[in-house]
Amino acid sequence: MPPATFEIASPGIVRRIHAGVSIRDAAREAGATERTVRGWLTRGRRSPKSKYGSFASTIDQIRREQNGPPLSQFLKELPEGFDRTDLLRCVERAARAGSVEAIKHLLEMRPDLRPRGGGGGHQPLGGTAPRTPRLMSKKTHCSNDEIRERQ
Which of 16, 73, 119, 147 has the fewest CB atoms within 10 Å distance of its CB? Predict the structure, then answer.
């Protein structure tokens, strides 16, 4: 199969990412490589008026919406002198609101909620093992140290 061009592949990539597919899988399904799609995103962010600009801004907006509200928004609601139970309730509230960041913290704070190994779980597309998510990326609004200080 010849490599996909931006004009042909980008609409399908946007649809797939909006449906919750990863950039890697969306690229592959559209006949492009992940590296190529990430290159289009980089070009679009650097040159918003280029043909890649609206593609990058659309993908970025979709991903912001999918990540839910930042955990820091909920941490501001904690009372002075809070304890671990208050923090746990706050993180649970943020996770229920759809904060991916909060869900990751909740799984760290509550190991009993983690899926157990042994089959029956989610099988990623292509049969490859899922990558272990980082607890928090540099792009988040609240650092790991700030969370630990509040525990």
Answer: 119
Dist. CA 73–CA 124, nearest whole Å: 31
Is residue 18, in this structure, part of any structural domain at all?
yes
Query: 87: Cβ–Cβ under 8 A, 6 or more apart, which residues?
Result: 78, 109, 150, 151
CB-based contacts of 42: which residues, under 8 Å, 6+ apart? 56
CA atoms within 13 A on the CB side of 13: 29
Q: Does 40 have pLDDT greater than 50?
A: yes
For 48, the token pair is 């918003």
DSSP code per residue over 63-100: HHHHH-S-HHHHHTTPPTT--HHHHHHHHHHHHHTT-H
Q: To 5 degrees, how large is the angle CA 5–CA 9–CA 12?
A: 175
Interval 58-85: pLDDT, tens? 999 988 887 777 777 778 878 888 888 8
Our count of domains for the chain comes to 2
- Backbone torsion region of residue 31, taken as left when φ is above 0, otherwise alpha when ψ lies between -120 and 50, otherwise beta: left
* Same domain? 84 vs 40: no
What is the distance between the alpha carbons of residues 149 and 151, in angstroms, rounded to a whole number? 6
